[in-house]
Write a structure and sequence with these properties.
Helix 4 packs antiparallel against helix 5. The longest helix is centred in the C-terminal third of the chain and has 36 residues. The chain has five helices and no strands. By secondary structure, it is mostly helical. The chain has one domain: Four Helix Bundle (Hemerythrin (Met), subunit A) (Up-down Bundle), CATH 1.20.120.340.
Length: 138
């Protein structure tokens, strides 16, 4: 492993280990979107093995997000997110099987919208944590 790859890997490990739960969700959305965008490019370039890997990684993240929903505490929001994740998964599978990018692009748009919401939640939580820490120190 090159020094640059090692440093990048260590940075990622540190980011994950120090992230809040909301920041981890943001990272997962970013990775799912990145893999779907790669799959779109790979379909366009007829790189079917690369497409398979990218789709599998994206679906793994989406399924993890779906399975980690707390249906008791999340109530209506969790039900809606589950519905969206199922829909996105079906579009990803559709695009993968049919080798069509439109369903994957739709999935990217939906996940990007959710990503922005999670970024806002993460920022609000970070502000709250900072306010509490400042109050405790002061």
């Amino acid at each position: 492993m090159s020094q640059a790859n090692y440093s990048s890997q260590r940075y990622l490990e540190t980011a994950v280990l120090t992230a809040s739960p909301e920041q981890l969700v943001v990272m997962m959305y970013e990775e799912a979107i990145r893999h779907l965008k790669q799959a779109i490019t790979q379909i366009d370039c007829n790189d079917f093995e690369g497409k398979r890997r990218s789709i599998n990684l994206a679906l793994g993240i989406i399924h993890y997000l779906q399975n980690s929903l707390d249906m008791n505490r999340g109530q209506d929001i969790a039900v809606e997110l589950r519905r969206i994740y199922k829909y996105v998964s079906s579009k990803v599978v559709e695009g993968s099987i049919q080798l069509k990018t439109a369903p994957l692009e739709e999935s990217v748009r939906l996940l990007s919208t959710l990503l922005e919401s999670w970024r806002e939640v993460a920022a609000q939580r970070q502000k709250q944590a900072h306010s509490i820490a400042t109050t405790m120190v002061g």
